[in-house]
Design brief:
Blueprint (H helix, E strand, L loop, with lengths): L10 H21 L37 E7 L2 E7 L5 H8 L20 E4 L2 E4 L12 E3 L12 H8 L9 H14 L5 H7 L10 H12 L4
Parallel strand pairs: 1-5
Antiparallel strand pairs: 1-2, 3-4, 3-5
Helix pairs in contact: 3-6, 4-5
Bound molecules: FE2/S2 (inorganic) cluster (2 copies).
């Protein structure tokens, strides 16, 4: 079936998309982040379009901005106090309001489309960009930093490394968190179950085959 041309197919729009992509990819190369996505160190490029005003950064020196609340969240087994507005998403709270910041959880689309911000809330995978931080009080939040460390990767993180399951690494923390939730529930998950568990995660580099290989290796008891 032939593709129906539309405004998005014009040469100019393609060139623009390509430029945006290359700008993002250039940032990745410059950062030397190829191996860092596993532990969440790779940084996503700035969003191409800013549709909402950015949230103000946390004030220095312990001041509280007007309208902010002080809340306590349980993150990776630790009680973390932070200040945020009622509208602050869990993703923003993790990345910008925690001290030290937890930047392993990635912000890519910020609207529930890509899975890059996947964390566990009470053991279930959840998109941190769609949750309000204030609503997570009393829940157990786990981020990619809670699975393993650079010195001691979790079995799944190690398997991603062994099977080359990442390229730029922006999507990797989200994939690891989605698949880990599946393996926690079903340690011997099948390929179909693994695929289903990360069906909401998008990898723009196309590393899906290696991601599935890495996950299957863990499900079969290897690394
Ligand atoms: S950043 Fe949350 S789904 Fe894309
Ligand atoms: S490894 Fe680059 S987006 Fe998935």
């Amino acid at each position: 079936m032939s593709k129906t041309p539309d405004a998005g197919d014009s040469p100019d729009s393609k060139a623009l998309s390509r430029r945006r992509f290359l700008r993002g990819a250039g940032g990745v190369a410059a950062g030397g982040v190829l191996a860092q996505g596993l532990i969440g160190c790779a940084e996503a490029p700035a969003r191409a379009t800013a549709q909402e005003p950015p949230e103000p950064a946390a004030p220095a020196g312990g001041e509280t901005l007007e309208g902010e609340l002080e809340i306590e969240l349980s993150i990776n087994g630790q009680a973390r106090k932070l200040r945020c507005e009622p509208r602050t998403t869990l993703l923003s709270a993790l990345r910008h309001r925690c001290e030290p910041a937890l930047t392993g959880t990635k912000e890519v689309c910020d609207r529930g489309n890509c899975g890059a911000c996947t964390v566990h809330v009470d053991g279930k995978p959840a998109l941190a960009c769609l949750l309000l931080a204030v609503d997570q009080r009393g829940k157990q939040i786990t981020t990619i930093e809670g699975l393993g460390s650079p010195e001691k990767l979790s079995a799944l993180q190690q398997s991603f490394w062994t099977h080359d399951g990442q390229m730029c690494g922006f999507c990797t923390p989200g994939f690891v968190m989605s698949i880990q939730a599946c393996l926690d529930k079903q340690p011997k998950a099948s390929l179909e179950e693994i695929k289903r568990s990360c069906s909401g995660n998008i990898c723009r580099c196309g590393t899906y085959p290696a991601v599935f290989e890495a996950a299957l290796a863990v499900a079969r008891g290897g690394k």
